[in-house]
Design goal:
By secondary structure, the chain is mainly β. The chain is 8% helix and 46% strand. Among the domains are: 120 residues, Sandwich (Jelly Rolls); 151 residues, no CATH class. The N terminus is likely disordered.
Length: 967
């Protein structure tokens, strides 16, 4: 590493060149140098980790599956789906990602860094004067198949050691390779292992350069780590990820300034997924990611297109021209559009109505209709489905529970504070003329025992009597030649003079004053130098009659869903179905919402206001309704655990679980308000790790511990018309080691108790090699009991350090003796089961053996030979395997079928039952020939949907028709 302290002569020139290139690079990428998360698309992912996005938060559930990555391993399910969250869509400071404002494409696995304050690894040279072993506080967010979360790397500054703390309870294990640098920790790659032992290698990376206040040159760092490959426990590479990379280096030293990766392909043995992005440098000055996803294509292993999806966009007409996704089109294998889903957004900007009063802190209230018909610019309003039907989303503003009891009403008697509880009523205007009298009386109504605020509004001096008028030298700067003035005092009936708060409104207004006193009769004493005349108005604060609705509106970065309406077509005005969402308490007295501030990773980041609702009523006209109740952080309140009165610190128990809302109760009613069914859930929580983590809410420090649900109980009831109740009780205990069930107990309505116990590799001897490979999520033994009696006890064996099961055992509940039910005799190098035996005689180990022949380059079973072992078949399957590898069209498939028929009728195999198969890869089975030879032929349409099954003579055995209809 170059020592910057020794090159002072060249440093300034070098810095100018580097910094110029750095700025150009950032502008070219559209990323600001001060952003804690570099990529807009990754920042949108962080929303799903930090903010509750579910029914409890009032947000709609909008998801679209895009493509499943074809991986030849049943333990890996890797898919891409599009999710919509209407958060920040109208905020010009929040950039739209690569699939448009509000949308996030999940599936591209990534670990990305969020800088807190200064970059953790910035002090990477021990020879620098400012070097020290600094505390690490940056965060890493991650998105993997089926889960997302975040972690931190903590530094022991005394021993200069580092530990990774996963802040999201799950079974993944993180490992990293670091750069050879003892000054600090610089991570080159991450490896993540899931609970089934599959490894995800994050070797590709984004790179950023940020300005450094103490060092003249910018500091480079890896801002994100991209998934490069997935490897099975046995070492087989299942998927390889490649990226389109854009990078820039300095011209003097070839130092990397930035690198930006976008997913390009995912390739497996079964096929390939291709992503086409458009890169537009001109978007650098707009709140948009420079990349926009244009197309996703699925190909099989032969390079043949199975289908594709194309994405269309427009820029919003207001609000900084944000990118909006307007449609997703699905295309057949020939690129012809077969269906389209379209999206319509609100493109109006709705100003809140002006208040009814302009008198300083006596502002008027906003109309209720504004909150009930809340409009957010760029928010999704309609989805037009492929069948032409329409889903219309209507939103309302969030509100939260606020107790309008008498204690609160008494606390706001000193002013016009709450327009929901108070209103202002003006008395008739009073004329005054000090040439006639200097005292005027008025009455304030109300409880004479409670002080209340009132206002003298518009004390206007119209002028002075003859001989007393001021001479105006400059119309813009009145300058009386005499000391003219007019003022007043307010005296109560007891002779007490009241103090006031004044607010100047205009040049012709002396002042508007708010007074605070007991209701009754008051006297205004007008004092003046000169004889002035004018008018004034007395305004009283009045209270709306009780009871008031216990709620207040709040301005959140997203609205809440109010109604979801279905139409048969875009032109229909009569809906097919309308679903209403109500967020009140069960008694209807007010909102069930509670203010929830998003937790910030550092104290200088602003916390956004969100609302979590304890109760949601989902109803459909004339069909009844369902009530949901949730556990939220309010149910486990924070408590002070340190600091002082001015700067307290708080501990928030179970925060990571409750901040998303946890279902506690569900009740189903019919349209006659009769309870039909109920589900009640209770939970026991436990700390997942002993480490605490820190976060901030409104700049105040909080700590908590990652917790998990240790036990969940469900009480499920059905209510009969005759008054009877059918009740089922379920209990699930979670294993802390892998967060999987260790015990499930089910009590049915007739009193039968059925329970299951699950044992995992960590709890049994002989399975150390599985635990060492981090294969911890699948049970190796399951014990089932009925009313306390064991009725089933099965165990999987993994002998000879195998990662696939070698046998399935049945344990006799009476004497504990073992019996081998199935023996898995042989796997190929791909992990495909080639031979298994259903054991009939435990003493000899003999039974019915079945051999599976794999073709299509070891990806599909093409023959199943019951009764035969691999040694019985020998090389007889070589021809059908070779023919299957060449099956690319109708001609080659015919050749394969002929070869399979010869295989089936081979005299050497006449004693065995043989079933054969052919395929269109990634579409489905094309022929199935059972042992009796009655072949079935499967035909598909252009959308790759099965349309019929016919016999060899073309006679239809089964026919499939698909009717897409609105739900």
């Amino acid at each position: 590493m170059m020592n910057t302290l020794k090159i002072r002569g060249l440093q300034i020139v070098f810095f100018i060149v580097l910094f110029t290139q750095y700025l150009n690079a950032q502008q070219g990428l559209g990323e600001g140098t001060g952003k804690p998360i570099a990529s807009p698309s990754m920042a949108s992912m962080a929303t799903y980790t930090d903010v509750p996005l579910n029914q409890a938060s009032g947000l709609p559930d909008i998801n679209f599956p895009i493509v499943n990555v074809p991986i030849q391993d049943e333990n890996i399910r890797y898919s891409f789906n599009l999710s919509y969250a209407p958060v920040y869509v109208d905020n010009g400071n929040q950039a739209a990602g690569d699939v448009g404002a509000g949308w996030t494409l999940f599936g591209g696995s990534v670990i990305y860094k969020k800088i807190i304050g200064e970059l953790d690894e910035r002090l990477d040279n021990t020879s620098l004067t400012e070097y020290k072993k600094n505390v690490f506080d940056d965060y890493y967010y991650y998105n993997l198949p089926g889960l997302s979360g975040k972690f931190q790397i903590k530094r022991d500054t005394i021993n200069n050691t580092f530990s990774l703390i996963n802040l999201t309870p799950n079974t993944v294990k993180f490992e990293y390779e670091r750069e050879n640098n003892n000054a600090t920790l610089k991570i080159n790659t991450f490896t993540v292992t899931d609970g089934k032992g599959y490894k995800f290698f994050f070797n590709d990376f984004d790179y950023e350069t940020i300005a450094d206040g103490n060092l003249l040159v910018g500091k480079g760092y890896r801002s994100a780590y991209m998934l490069s490959k997935i490897v099975s426990p046995s070492g087989k590479t299942l998927a390889i990820f490649t990226y389109d990379k854009k990078s820039k280096t300095t011209s003097l030293t070839n130092r990397l300034i930035y690198q930006y990766c976008k997913l390009k392909t995912i390739e497996t043995d079964l096929g390939k997924v291709i992503f086409d992005y458009l890169y537009d440098e001109s978007l650098a000055t707009t709140p948009n990611d420079l990349y926009s996803l244009q197309k996703v294509t699925l190909q099989n292993s032969l390079g043949q297109v199975i289908n594709s999806y194309t994405f269309s966009y427009v820029n919003s007409i207001i609000k900084e021209k944000k990118r909006l996704l307007t449609s997703i089109s699905k295309n057949d294998r020939n690129g012809v559009k077969i269906e389209q889903t379209s999206f319509v957004y609100n493109q109006q900007f709705i100003f809140p109505p002006a208040g009814g009063s302009s008198v300083c802190d006596w502002g008027g209230s906003v109309e209720q209709s504004y909150y009930d018909n809340y409009k957010v610019t760029n928010i999704l309003e309609k989805i037009i489905t492929p069948s032409g039907g329409v889903k219309k989303y209507e939103y309302a503003s969030h509100d939260y529970f606020f107790n309008y009891d008498q204690t609160y009403l008494d606390s706001i008697l000193n002013g016009y504070i709450d327009s929901k509880a108070q209103y202002v009523q003006s008395q008739p205007e009073t004329q005054f003329d000090t040439s006639q009298t200097s005292t005027y009386t008025f009455t304030i109504s109300g409880d004479p025992n409670k002080k209340i605020a009132f206002n003298i509004y518009g004390f206007i001096v119209d002028g002075y009597h003859d001989g007393d008028e001021p001479i105006i030298e400059n119309p813009l700067h009145p300058k009386p030649v005499k000391p003219f003035s007019t003022d007043y005092k307010i005296k109560s009936s007891t002779g007490e003079y009241l103090n006031y708060r004044g607010c100047i409104l205009g040049s012709n207004s002396l002042s508007d004053r708010v007074f605070y006193g007991y209701p009754g009769t008051y006297t205004m004493e007008v004092t003046s130098v000169g004889k002035g005349y004018g008018f004034f108005t007395v305004s009283e604060i009045k209270f709306f009659p009780l009871p008031l609705r216990n709620s207040k509106y709040v301005n959140a970065p997203s609205p809440r869903l109010k109604t979801l309406t279905y139409y048969n077509s875009i032109n229909d005005t009569q809906p097919v179905k309308k679903i209403n969402y109500n967020y009140d308490t069960e008694d209807g007295s007010g909102s069930s919402g509670y203010i929830f501030y998003s937790d910030s990773d550092d104290e200088f980041s602003a916390s956004e206001i969100f609302v979590l609702y304890k109760n949601i009523k989902v109803s459909e006209d004339q069909t009844g309704y369902t009530r949901f109740s949730y556990i939220i952080p309010e149910d486990y309140p924070k408590y002070q655990n340190g600091g002082n009165q001015l700067y307290p610190t708080y501990f928030y128990p179970y925060y990571n679980i409750t901040k998303g809302g946890l279902l506690s109760d569900k009740k189903v009613y019919n349209d006659q308000n009769q309870l039909l069914a109920s589900e009640k859930y209770t939970y026991a929580f436990e700390d997942y790790i002993s480490d605490t983590y820190q976060f901030y809410i409104n700049n105040s420090p909080y700590t908590s511990k990652p917790t998990y649900v240790k036990k969940a109980n469900a009480n499920i009831k059905s209510f009969m018309n005759n008054g009877g109740i059918i009740e089922n009780i379920n209990e699930t205990v979670i294993n802390k080691f892998n967060l999987k069930p260790s015990y499930i107990k089910e009590t049915s309505a007739d009193g039968t108790i059925r329970d299951k116990q699950f044992l995992y590799p960590s709890a049994a001897s002989g399975y150390a090699h599985l635990e060492n490979a981090y294969i911890i999520s699948d049970p190796i033994q399951t014990i089932t009991k009925n009313n306390g009696k064991v009725i089933s006890n099965t165990q999987l064996k993994y002998d000879n350090n195998k990662f696939q099961p070698t046998s399935a055992l049945s344990i006799n509940p009476n004497d504990g003796s073992l019996k081998t039910a199935i023996r898995y005799d042989d796997y190929d190098v791909q992990g495909n089961l080639r031979q298994y035996t259903a054991v009939g005689d435990e003493s000899t180990g003999k039974g019915v053996t079945t051999t599976v022949i794999w073709g299509y380059n070891n990806t599909m079973p093409i023959a199943e030979v019951k009764g035969a072992s691999l040694s019985d078949i020998g090389s007889l399957a070589d021809t059908i395997i070779a023919k299957s590898n060449l099956d690319v069209d109708a001609t080659s498939e015919t050749e394969l079928i002929n070869a399979l028929d010869l295989f089936r009728t081979n005299p050497a195999l006449k004693n065995f039952q043989i079933t054969t198969y052919t395929y269109d890869p990634l579409i489905g089975v094309t022929t199935l020939t059972p042992p009796n030879g009655m072949r079935e032929i499967y035909r598909y349409d252009q959308q790759n949907k099965l349309k019929s099954v016919v016999n060899v003579n073309g006679n239809i055995l089964k026919e499939y028709k698909y009717n897409i209809k609105q739900p």
